[in-house]
Amino acid sequence: MMLVIVKVIAYFFLWTLYSYSVHRLAHIPHKKNFLYKIHIVHHRVKYGDSNWPEFSNYFFWFGSFKASLDIWLTLTLPLIVLVFIDPVPGGILLGFHYVYEVFLAGKVVDHNPRIRGIITRWLSIGAYHLKHHDLYKCNYSFFITLWDHIFQTTDKKFLGVRGAKERRENLDERY
Asked: By C-alpha distance, which of 31, 29, 11 is closest to 19?
């Protein structure tokens, strides 16, 4: 049992590193960047007022082919591969991913401006994730902010380096 827990934690970190890397690549605007072409759709989505998922989300369809493919390539595919390599921890993470994407990723957690404060220092949710939508060049991490801190891509680093203190204050007031 302990080995499964250790594997789930280790795979979780590898999975979030992979998704961080793919997400960061998806923000390189180039006509030949396939990831950019599909990911940009995500930044155009207007999340409604409902906290309930759309019916199609239960089937991992997120409104359009590009929006769905973005999730599948960035988050789902590595877990499907993991299920074939190591079924128990892979299945646990795939189950977590399903529940998170269907029930939490939309307006409930990821795109909820009411979630702010100390929790967003460690979890890539709410105001932290929404700043990524405003600035594009920072806050790439999913689930945890670890990789943004390691690779220095947090919004504070991004705005601090460019001397945009007033913009950061405006964003902090907004979120």
From this structure: 11
Backbone angles phi, psi at 143, to 5 degrees: 70, -55
d(CA 123, CA 110): 10
- Cα separation, 160 vs 130, in Å, equals 18
pLDDT band at 58 (very low <50, low <70, confident <90, very high): confident
Distance between CA atoms of 53 and 157, rounded to whole angstroms? 33
User: How much is the pLDDT for 93?
Assistant: 98
Q: How far apart are CA 107 and CA 91, in angstroms?
A: 25
Q: Which of helix, strand or coil describes residue 138?
A: coil
pLDDT in tens, 124-154: 999 998 898 888 889 999 999 999 999 999 9
Give the 3-state secondary structure of residue 115: coil
pLDDT over 90 at 111, yes or no:
no
Other CB atoms closer than 10 Å to residue 96's CB: what's the count?
Answer: 15
Q: Give residue for tokens 């007022």.
A: 49
Higher-scoring residue by pLDDT: 116, 88? 88
Residue 129 and residue 111: Cα distance in Å, rounded?
7
Query: How far is residue 29's CA from residue 9's CA, in Å, rounded to a whole number?
Result: 33
